[in-house]
Amino acid sequence: MSKMPLERVKSFIKKFDETLEPIVLNEEMHTSEAAARMLGVETGQIAKSILFKCGSEFGLFVAAGDVRIDPKKVKQQLGPGKVKMASAEEVLEMTGFQPGAVCPYALAANLPIYLDESLARFDTVYTAAGIPESLLPVSLDVLKDMTGGTVINLQK
To answer: Which InterPro entries does its entry note (predicted)?
Structure first.
């Protein structure tokens, strides 16, 4: 993992689609709402990637920015144990990205990835792209191909 996060992301996405290019803005976006405002899109179009832990199992869950992920549905995917959001250290170790810049591809570890069906409402969603000021516009179909993720209902 020697490449800088944005460069690692760019390298990875070029394997899937030469036309994909992250958008890099002048300031960090700390919430889905802030990112949506900056891009002039709906909050739901900003895909949030959250690393959950259940017992010793990790999984990356991706949903539209305007929905809540149901911990019971996380538990159904990850198995026994208490469902917790991963710590900042675990996020960095497992994904290779800082919290707030986690994208569901070009990950440090091989993680199961679950894509919420809420993302299907939009032709284009925006995932983080390795640094807090970057986003990647992508369709759910391409995101599914890039991540190998499973599309399921994760909503509360």
So the answer is: YbaK/aa-tRNA-synt-asso_dom_sf, YbaK/aa-tRNA-synth-assoc-dom
Residues ≥6 apart with Cβ < 8 Å to 46: 32, 35, 36, 39, 64, 65, 125, 126, 135
- CATH number at 26 reads 3.90.960.10
| Residue 10 φ/ψ region, left for φ over 0, alpha for ψ in the -120 to 50 degree band, beta for the rest | alpha
What's the whole-model pTM score? 0.94
Element (H, E) at 10: helix 5-14
Looking at residue 109, its amino acid is: A
Residue that the structure tokens 């990850």 belong to = 78
Q: Where are the alpha helices (DSSP H) in 17-100?
A: 32-39, 71-78, 88-95
Start-to-end C-alpha separation, the chain? 35
Number of CB atoms found within 10 A of residue 120's CB: 14
Residue with tokens 């369709």: 139
pLDDT tens digits for 52-87? 999 999 999 999 999 999 999 999 999 989 999 999
Domain count, the chain: 1
Expressed as residue numbers, the domain containing 49 is: 5-152
The per-residue pLDDT for 1 is 42
